[in-house]
Amino acid sequence: MSCSKDDETEKLGNWFRKDLPNFGGSIRTNAVSFVIGNVGYIGTGYTNETVARVKDFWAYNADRQTWSQITPFPGTGRNNATAFVLKGKAYVGGGYDGVLTVDNGYKKDFYEYDPATNKWKGVEEFGGGTRQFATSFVVNDRAYVGLGFNGSNYYQDFWEYNPGTDKWTEMATFKGGKRTGAIAFTVGTKAYVGFGESNTGTSFKDIYSFDPAGNNGAGNWTRVDFATGFDQDNFPARSYGSAFVIDGKAYIVGGRGRSDVWEYDPGSNGWTERASFPTQRGFAGAFSIGKIGYLGTGSSAGSGGGTDDFWGFDPTQAINTDDDL
Fold first, then answer.
1. Could you state, in order of their start, the residue ranges of all structural domains in the chain?
2. pLDDT on residue 3
3. What is the reported pLDDT for 6?
4. CATH 2.120.10.80 fits 5-318, yes or no
5. Residue range 300-316, pLDDT digits in tens
6. Of 21, 59, 58, 57, which Cα lies nearest the Cα of 39?
């Protein structure tokens, strides 16, 4: 779906960076991101500055608008990992480190980060084996990780992680089929997974909700229908996009070769297009703090080695058309 500049100014939502610092680390793409309290985190990824997969981690304090470096990730430097937060602690694992002599570079190790001590420790390896671009989400103090790929193997499995027992349990298979580069978010006690691409490179625009209590505790996936009257033919498919949640609504941002932004309201099951991100952006880090969404790093058109810009998004404001954003 393409829009003229006049069309764009009619969409609600404002992207801004005038008062925000650039990401604290080197330019990068394919990093992981998460938020604990009012602090956002971005780390690992791939950078063209040193032509390397990195393991540094940075914390963004929204009150001070500053980045500070935390203890580096203890595993090998990697990109395409996944991350989630449970009970105030972050978990990061999987991905690809390029060390072909060990599982062809694909990873399954996981680590827990405690912001209270600024320390990492190893936890149980992912139950589904090595892979990159896995998708993760959290519901009711349990994490769920699945999808992604390992070489020519694409997956549609999902596994539950229990931090109390440090164990992984296989759950119901994702009903949308094998895919990578999917997008996940949680609103309240319900999780949603969708978009992504198949092993043939075909992108999806479907979305499924997940109930962990269904199917006798194995979880149940249900395809979410588009609202009546919605022009789904012009709703764009995407992969490797980003998402954050503000006030019970999810915002899907960009993806490979895309800059459009869509708001999803689970209450009405409606999609509404919002102001686009200023440039195409995929493989980015994103999180929300309070009523503001944040997005940074990733790949823009023509910047395959990554970026270090950092943007805020206010869904209630009109688009800022000034040159100085």
1. 5-318
2. 40
3. 46
4. yes
5. 865 567 999 999 999 99
6. 59
